[in-house]
Automatic annotation (TrEMBL):
Keywords (A to Z) from UniProt: Membrane, Repeat, Transmembrane, Transmembrane helix, Transport
InterPro entries with a match to the protein in the record: Cit_transptr-like_dom, DASS-Related_Transporters, RCK_C, RCK_C_sf
GO-annotated molecular function: monoatomic cation transmembrane transporter activity
Lineage top rank: taxon: Bacteria
Name recorded for this polypeptide: Potassium transporter TrkA
TM regions (residue ranges): 12-28, 34-50, 62-81, 101-125, 146-166, 178-200, 407-427, 458-477, 489-509, 516-534, 540-562, 574-597
Membrane topology designation: Multi-pass membrane protein
């Protein structure tokens, strides 16, 4: 085996900096974007790179492309195009579980061709939960396939972050970049075989679990609640009823209603026992008809949480499940810091995180991406929350989206930008930035909203880690590492090299995500291909697709995190269903590479 030793001082420093940065990201000791900035600074301070090279990531074409795509995606969402498409796709699902899985996997794949995977998953998530409820299938049978569909779709398009980065790696080493056709031809079969696997085998490995809300309140038939067969009400305990138990207050015996929960700040008591004592200012969540709930007024109870007689009496409420979206602006803040109850008039009674339900001091827990919140409040307030960025409200009724002139303009501008980028008439970064500017000029999105749409954490992460690739090339370490791979794998043929790089990338992706994996392995993979005289474009495509093989852990991709709460998934669920999906992708790759790239 060819050794990469001896190493120069710059190469040793580069290894130390890259290893430290990667360790910080994997461990989660500090935020990934901050770790990336520290890597950038270290490369410049140690003179591994010049200051200009260390900062060049912020002007890199991959970063500019991602900025443009973020604005385009936001414009499509704001003009109603994405929701309109999601509703149309959901309408095709029918009432059969297999058909629903197929439709939502394909819907996720199609939307991921032209927009961010997370955005595609987020817009389809409420529709998937709604359809699952309508046909009586657990959401856990649909949401993981939806997540996998968006990831598979990301393999078949140039407009995925890892794919953009690998194309940039090729250009940086004097090779031709990648085109949309490269990914459609290579990634298209991945979508088809991945879909077939899920329909024939994978769906049998998916758990059949109820939603977070039904797990937290198992005595309630959520379908009847959401269909409004009955109504939910908030009833406040006055001093006149304080000290009695639920049984002594004879709430159910007198009115035939059911006490589902008691909100007693800072605790939520779900499914309270009959001998649970009531306290003044307790708020009861009661299920029953309006005329029966009103019988409680004047018997030591006040309808509504706030008031005296006449205030808040018409307050039928809903039980809502709300998911914290990845990269929501308030991640890390608590509900108290957000003044959530004051601002939205909703009460969070439970929080689901990583398979565990929390019911006490929920307001003091810093929110994390993928958290599922069970909350109660007026229906109008729930609808208001659905318009807030970062909150994804589930179980919302299907609504017809009005698309007007702005939607048509947004679609036209997006189509033109994607077309000129895919055909190579204009550089991808320029095409995306021009498309974003055109959307602002035509009023499809405001400049302020465009700034808010840009995922600055992702931009900082990529711009901070891109200099590692530059350093691998300038120090020669990438060539040495590529030669090491060449010596150990190419002896068995080009497919052996591609298989080794694919598996290494998949493993790293499960730990740090595809974006970081592409930044670390991409330059080495291109150098290895050049050293071995193997088509570097083919190797780059294989590695970039491996960055989307994020099937084994929920932390491998934010879209998996997004599905965790609503699907009530555990970590092991992803590995059980995802290991077969990963094997299918590898086998498909080994068939596609010789056919498409003549290896």
């Amino acid at each position: 085996m060819q050794l990469i030793l001896p190493l120069s001082t710059s190469e040793v420093l580069l290894l130390a900096i890259a290893f430290t940065g990667l360790s910080l990201i994997i461990s989660g000791w500090i935020r990934a974007d901050l770790a990336a900035l520290l890597v950038l600074i270290a490369l410049g301070v140690t003179r591994v790179l010049t200051p200009q090279e260390a900062l060049s990531g912020f002007s890199n074409s991959a970063v500019i492309t991602i900025i443009g795509l973020s604005v385009i995606t936001a414009a499509l969402e704001q003009t109603g195009v994405v929701k309109w498409a999601a509703n149309r796709l959901a309408a095709l699902s029918g009432g059969n579980e297999t058909r629903v899985i197929a439709v939502f996997m394909l819907a996720g794949a199609l939307l991921s061709l032209v927009m961010n995977n997370i955005a595609a998953g987020a817009v389809l998530l409420p529709a998937a939960v709604r359809v699952a409820r309508q046909i009586g299938v657990p959401a856990s049978k649909i949401l993981m396939p939806l997540s996998y569909g968006t990831l598979l779709g990301g393999m078949a398009t140039l407009f995925t972050t890892a794919n953009i980065i690998l194309s940039g790696n090729l250009v940086a080493q004097g090779q031709a970049g990648l085109t949309m056709a490269n990914f459609l031809l290579s990634g298209g079969p991945m979508v088809l075989t991945g879909l077939l696997y899920m329909l024939l085998i994978g769906r049998k490995l998916l758990p059949a679990r109820e939603t977070v809300a039904s797990t937290a309140v198992p005595a309630v038939d959520l379908r009847s609640i959401y269909r409004l067969d009955e109504r939910l009400w908030e009833v406040r305990v006055t001093p006149a009823a304080a000290g009695k138990t639920i049984a002594e207050a004879a709430i159910s015996a007198t009115t035939g209603t059911t006490v589902l929960a008691i909100w007693r700040d800072p605790e939520a008591i779900l499914n309270p026992a009959p001998d649970t004592p009531l306290r003044a200012s307790d708020v009861l969540l009661i299920l029953g008809r309006e005329d029966r709930v009103r019988q409680l007024a004047g018997a030591g109870f006040a309808i509504g949480r706030n008031g005296t007689s006449g205030e808040g009496l018409d307050l039928p409420i809903e039980l809502a499940e709300v998911v914290v979206a990845p990269r929501a602006p308030f991640i890390g803040q608590t509900l108290q810091q957000l003044r959530f109850r004051t601002k939205f008039g909703l009460t969070v009674v439970a929080l689901w995180r990583e398979g565990r339900s929390y019911r006490t001091n929920v307001g003091t827990m810093p929110l994390a991406a993928g958290d599922a919140l069970l909350m109660t409040g007026p229906a109008a307030r729930v609808r208001q929350l659905a318009d807030e960025p970062g909150f994804i409200v589930l179980h919302t009724p299907a609504s017809e989206v009005e698309t007007g002139r702005q939607a048509v303009i947004a679609v036209a501008i997006t189509a033109i930008a994607l077309f000129v980028a895919a055909t190579g008439w204009v550089a991808t970064a320029e095409a995306m930035l021009a498309g974003a500017a055109a959307l602002v000029l035509t009023g499809c999105i405001t400049m302020d909203d465009a700034y808010r749409a840009i995922e600055w954490r992702v931009v900082t992460l990529i711009a901070g880690l891109l200099p590692i690739g530059t350093a691998l090339v300038t120090t020669g370490l990438g060539t040495k590492a590529g030669a090491l791979l060449t010596g150990s794998l190419v002896a068995y043929g080009p497919l052996a090299l591609i298989t080794g790089l694919f598996l290494a990338t998949v493993l790293l992706t499960q730990l740090v995500g595809g974006q970081v994996a592409s930044l670390i392995i991409g330059p080495i993979a291109v150098s290895a291909a050049i050293s071995a005289h193997v088509n570097p474009q083919a190797v780059a495509v294989a590695v970039s697709m491996a960055c989307s093989v994020a099937f084994l852990t929920p932390i491998a991709h934010p879209v998996n995190v997004l599905m965790m709460g609503p699907g009530n998934y555990r970590f092991s669920d992803f590995f059980r269903a995802g290991i077969g999906q990963t094997i299918v992708c590898l086998l498909t790759l080994l068939v596609v590479m010789p056919l498409v790239w003549q290896l």
